[in-house]
Design goal:
Blueprint: E1 2-8, E2 11-17, H1 20-25, H2 29-38, H3 51-63, H4 73-88, E3 92-94, H5 96-101, E4 112-115, H6 121-137, E5 140-144, E6 154-155, E7 160-161, H7 165-180, E8 188-193, H8 199-203, E9 216-221, H9 223-231, E10 239-241, E11 244-246, E12 249-253, E13 259-264, H10 269-283, E14 287-290, H11 291-296, E15 308-309, E16 316-317, E17 322-329, E18 334-335, E19 338-339, H12 341-359, H13 367-376, E20 379-384, H14 386-393, H15 400-428, H16 457-463, E21 476-480, E22 486-490, H17 492-498, H18 505-518, H19 529-534, H20 543-554, E23 564-567, H21 573-585, E24 590-595, E25 604-605, H22 619-633, E26 653-661, E27 664-672, E28 678-685, H23 693-708, H24 713-720, E29 729-731, E30 734-736, H25 739-755, H26 763-780, E31 800-803, E32 806-809
Parallel strand pairs: 4-5, 5-8, 8-9, 9-14, 17-20, 23-24
Antiparallel strand pairs: 1-2, 3-17, 4-17, 6-7, 10-11, 12-13, 14-24, 15-16, 18-19, 21-22, 21-25, 26-27, 27-28, 29-30, 31-32
Helix pairs in contact: 2-16, 3-4, 6-7, 10-21, 12-15, 15-20, 20-21, 24-25
């Protein structure tokens, strides 16, 4: 690899001259596997472009924008080379949408957009239409549902009642689920303010894993709520609607999810916060946003307050605003154990020009979004590879030195980005909405805002570095994408450092086993302390240290930061609570927590691949199956030492009997075990069952359970025989008083036949018995009431009435005498 010197803006940078073979060979197997799925385009001859060809395509397209500003071809070629160099050296990359679409037939769009959901059907469904088009294009969207009226609020036009914000959230989720099935899609964020009357309904919206699966959700905390929480948590919490105080609502729903009412509840500030914490502890949602802190740094106050962010919380935007993202990989700036800050400055400046050019290429399917992109010219230059940079520098993430380094790196990026934006404003003009910004009358700027820290999932995979400002999830882990494709990772910087120590084969083997099983080395107390101190991972770090690092970066970030506190499965609700409060005290703008293993399906996993539940599975079905297995395997305390019924064999034989009842012909099947003893009973009413079929089915299930548990058959018969129902009937086998009586008599006949105790009746015996039954019933009762109160029709279940000496059904026409 040869080198040359590039001079730009009075800075000298040594730039490698890459050949395509070197570039293509620099990507890992995991990176190539992901890039082939997402970034490498198919050429006209049917082959896929190489990574170097991809970078050439992106650099050429973005540099071509300079022609619009009067640059000649030599200048354009110079910018193209600089753009290519910072990407080929893995120092910077635009966001995935730009990498995918630049230079292709597909329009370039940004992932970050916020849309309005206002309190009218017109707004709700116009936004849904716009959102559907943007989702289809791949944009990530944010929506604040706080503007919608609470559930059961009267509506004037329909003269009905509102179904509430969560109901419309479910409508959006269903619509995006359909779009999601058609290919790549953007993620979504839904927010609600804590003082909305339906806030509790929103907090509980994702209680079951798999519900509202196309959204992340966050609760917006106000300064007044957080002060009350920390100073007087036992005070009653009141919400506001149309400027009036009201108690929080407990929204009441039918089993199908429809709203049927609400009740006002007394709940303290501490109690409602504890409920939020409980849900976040259970599955990671909702996250929280400190909305007042967000608006303290609103760069465009002339457009009004900001009420929502993009899906991952790093971009708080006005309605229809968007942000163009890109990230600097800090890991590549560590050279010979030192960090190259001058090189970082050059890459920052080149990145800002590159990202500003991307805005001119935007073409959204919703015109309002394209227009505001041009008026505000927001960019979100962020970082990745920070944790890997610390590994190479030998600095612990959870240390004062680590936080100081993070703050210094981000300070330089933010300062250089703002300087470059000022220079571009002189060169190309200010952003049109500057009169509505904090810069008006102070200085010229090309962009309303410049820095942010995004989660950098796929682009971190492409450059094989840690994500955003996050600590590494684990030293070894398995990541799976939305299609269930798995990627195995073992941290290359740990591996390189490990080789410098004179460790035995047994020690290395135990270290590798520990990393596979836990992802961490903190339990290995016999390895060098320096290793354990430096190579910490997400779950080795306290919530307080997570938030201190986020705060260190936030001080030099225009917008916000995507950051998660990753807890081990053993973390308590109090740990989550402290993490949230720490985020507020450290003046962070948002906070997300996640307890490892709290969801059935996870993107990042420690352990063996065969134990990982695929992202393509349905979590609701998996959870149902787990619950059933748990019910089977765990013995309830009240059932301890009690009888468990025998397992039914696949094949079993028996007899079916027919008996007349007051509800129609009853067919009773009795199957025997290998010893000829009744094992199970089934009964079906001949006339499709009617009203009493479910009774006979339930009765037979219980009888079968008793038989399989070896309860004496004669005791079962004694308990059921003689039970009187509303419609007795006379048969050649005697009076059948009810369905239980019929089944008991058949069961008795069955066991007596096996014992040889039944004599076939003669016709004279049958006639005499039937006449005796008639006489007995006539003498005992002359009224229908003697046969029971309000007997049911065997055909439809309606009430039978006594008419002209016979009981008949007025609903279906059934007549007992017919």
């Amino acid at each position: 690899m040869s080198k040359n010197v590039s001079i730009q803006n009075h800075q000298v940078r040594v730039v490698p001259v890459f050949n395509e073979k070197e570039v293509n060979g620099s990507y890992t197997e995991n990176a190539l596997k992901m890039m082939k799925k997402r970034y490498l385009q198919t050429k006209n001859d049917g082959t896929q472009e190489t990574p170097a060809e991809m970078l050439r395509r992106v650099a050429k397209t973005i540099a071509g924008v300079e022609k619009k500003y009067g640059k000649d071809q030599n200048q354009i070629n110079k910018f193209e080379k600089e753009f290519y160099d910072i990407m080929a050296s893995k120092a910077y990359t635009p966001a995935g949408r730009t990498v995918t679409n630049a230079g292709s037939a597909t329009p370039i769009i940004a992932n970050c957009i916020v849309l309005p959901v206002l309190d009218s059907m017109e707004s709700i469904f116009q936004t849904l239409k716009d959102a559907a088009l943007l989702q289809q294009a791949g944009s990530g969207l944010g929506f604040d549902f706080s503007h919608l009226r609470p559930a059961m609020t009267p509506t004037k036009k329909s003269r009905g009642s509102a179904s509430g914000p969560v109901s419309f959230l479910r409508v959006y989720d269903t619509a995006f689920g359909v779009i999601k099935q058609q290919g790549r899609h953007g993620a979504n964020m839904a927010m609600m303010q804590i003082d909305h009357p339906d806030a509790l309904d929103f907090i509980r919206a994702k209680e079951r894993e798999g519900d509202i699966r196309n959204f992340n959700i966050s609760i917006k905390m106000t300064e007044s709520f957080m002060r009350a929480l920390t100073e007087n948590p036992d005070q009653q919490w009141y919400c506001t609607y149309k400027g009036e105080k009201t108690k929080p609502h407990n929204v009441l729903r039918n089993p199908n999810g429809s709203v049927n009412g609400y009740e006002e509840i007394d709940i303290t500030v501490g109690e409602i916060f504890d409920e939020l914490v409980s849900y976040a502890w259970a599955n990671g949602e909702p996250g929280i946003v400190f909305i007042d802190e967000v608006n303290k740094t609103n760069p465009l106050p002339g457009l009004g307050p900001i009420d929502c962010s993009n899906p991952c919380g790093e971009q708080f935007l006005h309605h229809y605003d968007n942000c163009n993202l890109g990230s600097i990989n800090l890991a590549v700036f560590v050279k010979d154990g030192k960090f190259d800050y001058e090189d970082l400055k050059h890459v920052t400046r080149t990145s800002v020009r590159m990202m500003d050019n991307v805005i001119d290429l935007f073409d959204f399917p919703v015109q309002e979004v394209t227009d505001l992109a041009q008026k505000n010219r927001r960019i979100g230059l962020g970082i990745m590879g920070f944790s890997d940079a610390l590994y190479q520098l030998g600095v612990a993430y959870n240390s004062e030195e680590g936080r100081a380094l993070g703050e210094k790196m981000m300070s330089i990026i933010n300062e250089e980005a703002h300087k470059m934006s000022e220079e571009l404003a002189e060169e190309k003009g200010v952003f049109p909405n500057i009169t509505k910004s904090i810069f008006h009358g102070k200085k010229k700027m090309r962009n309303a805002a410049l820095t942010t820290v995004a989660p950098t999932g796929s682009i971190s995979m492409m450059y094989d570095c840690s994500s955003g400002i996050e600590p590494n999830f684990a030293l070894g882990y398995i990541k799976q994408d939305k299609d269930g494709l798995q990627y195995n990772y073992f941290n290359k910087h740990f591996k390189a450092t490990l080789e410098k120590y004179n460790l035995t084969e047994d020690q290395i083997k135990r270290i590798n086993e520990e990393i596979v099983n836990t992802g961490s080395i903190q339990a290995l107390t016999d390895i060098p302390e320096e290793l354990r101190k430096t190579f910490v991972v997400a779950m080795d770090i306290s919530a307080e240290d997570h938030m201190k690092m986020q705060a260190a970066f936030q001080r030099n970030v225009d917008n916000s930061i995507s950051k998660t506190i990753n807890f081990p499965f053993s973390a308590t609700k109090e740990d989550v609570r402290e993490g949230y409060i720490s985020a507020w005290r450290n003046k962070c703008k948002s906070c997300t927590v996640y307890r490892d293993g709290s969801r059935t399906i996870q993107v990042l996993n420690v352990g063996k691949s065969e134990d990982i539940v695929s992202t393509t599975e349905d979590p609701t079905k998996i959870n149902k199956k787990k619950a059933e297995e748990k019910a089977r395997n765990e013995e309830n305390a009240v059932d301890k030492n009690r009888i468990t019924p025998r397992v039914r064999p696949e094949v079993i034989a028996g007899r079916t009997y027919k008996v007349k009842t007051g509800y129609g012909n009853l067919y009773v099947t009795i199957n025997d075990d290998d010893d000829g003893v009744p094992f199970e009973v089934f009964a079906t009413l001949g006339k499709s069952g009617g009203f009493f079929q479910e009774q006979s089915e339930g009765l037979c299930r219980l009888i079968s359970r008793l038989l399989r548990s070896r309860v004496k058959v004669t005791e079962i018969i004694d308990d059921l025989k003689g039970i009187r129902g509303p419609m007795p009937v006379m048969t050649n086998k005697g009076t059948i008083l009810s369905l239980p009586d019929a089944i008991a008599q058949i069961l008795e006949e069955h066991i007596n036949a096996k014992a040889g105790q039944i004599e076939p009746p003669t016709s004279d015996m049958v006639n005499a018995q039937v006449q005796a039954q008639k006489d007995d019933l006539f003498n005992k009762a002359k009224a229908l009431a003697n046969f029971g109160m309000a007997p049911g029709c065997p055909e439809c279940g309606g009430l039978l009435k006594l008419q002209e000496g016979c009981s008949s059904c007025l609903s279906c026409g059934y007549s007992r005498c017919g």
